[in-house]
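User: Could you check the structure of this?
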Amino acid sequence: MVRARKLNVGLPIHLHRELVEQASTDGVSVNTLIVGLLERGVGAVKGLAAASDR
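Assistant: Sure, the predicted structure tokens are below.
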């Protein structure tokens, strides 16, 4: 994966903790986990928008 941009986001402590725990469970970095979650979320939003256009 080519890192094209940086995004600095302030997270509540509890959310950061959950992300760290999930990344550890999945055996990936927190960054990889967040990118995957964002990709799925954006895909879901696009899917909803496409469905509403029908």
